Amino acid sequence: MVFEWAEHGNLRELYLNNNIRWDAKISIARDICRGLAFLHSVNILHHDLKCENILITEKMQPKISNFSLAREFNAVTLPIDNFNDIMHWLAPEKLECIKDSKKRENINRYTIQCEIFSFGMLLWELGFQRKPYENMTFMGILDHVLNGGRESFDIKSGSNSIQEEYFAIIKLAWVQEPSLRPGIQQLFNLLQELYENHNIFPLLHPIPSHVVERSQNNVQNTIPSMVIIQIFIIILFIPFYFIFFFFVFKLFVLGHSYL
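The structure corresponding to this sequence follows.
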């Protein structure tokens, strides 16, 4: 599979090396959700959503990557050798498979609701710019999430409404009961509304149409003046042309007269 060149690497690398503005976070989150909605529309579940699997282009556009675990809706979940790589983002119903060997044998399917939960964890990771439960042990994460625990929202005193609304969306996505989690389209609508309500614009702005029209008019207005200048230069040099041809003619005639 070929991907567009990712100038900024993956989203985890980006947030580890930069303090991402909140308007950029909302824009990135919305675009990831849009990509996820497309995958779901063609019956594909990614199975491994996290910032490390989101590539960021030169224009700060996120691209979902690493489809090694991706499967169709009705496909059986593949056995995972190393849960340490993904458990920080896994839904509680999938974590039960790790704790209960009987459920692992029956294969508790990875569903859209599982993906919604993982997307919520990705949103938290992007918001706080760190790996979920990074200081907790394997069993600590397992017990914490299965008992309804989640990552904390250590909101600073200077937090604003854009952060509070973003956190509210995360809380919807990681509800313990799978059937109560919103669909991907609902999450996209909420992120789009947040994007619009706070007047967030694309991170790279296209040239406004009126600027383009103005520049085109300037070019059109410049053309007549350039033509006039060229005509003036031609008229100015006409006498020099006559003098040049006169001397050439004289030399030619005199040259023949001596032969």
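The chain is about 55% helix and 5% strand.
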